[in-house]
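Input record (one chain):
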Amino acid sequence: MKRSATLFLMTILPLCAATFASAAEPVQRLQRATGLWKVTPATSPFSWEICVDHARDRLIDDDLWSGFEQECKIESQSRQGDSYQFASSCPDAKLAGTFKGDLAKAYTLSADTTVQVNGKSEVQRTELAAVFQGACPAGLAPGAKKMRGGMVMKSLYTDR
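The corresponding structure, as predicted from the sequence alone:
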């Protein structure tokens, strides 16, 4: 979706992480441990905390590219130790990333989204680090994000 890619680039709110699945069938889905995760982007001032439910967690879909599993297709992937790399094609864009770490304590993610703008390739780089904080606080529903500054975004899990 051209609108999705453009909106992604314009907001510069990199929405974190790494669910590695194709639109047809999940190849491998990496999911964080249940509890509160603090996500700090290196490329944006917009940090957040997310209350994760392991069974419903979708890292890329929830924090990097909304609709990734439905819109995008994994073209290649590889794993070596605690590092996972992927490249995917999405409507009007390419998304490639590298995930390092574990999903129980901490991880980092670097991702590049490439789109064509006026015949030129434009790349949006997203880098972030996430650290497990423990149990979710009372009042923060699974899938909900608490943005820096206190605004709470509704649960991402409503359709799961």
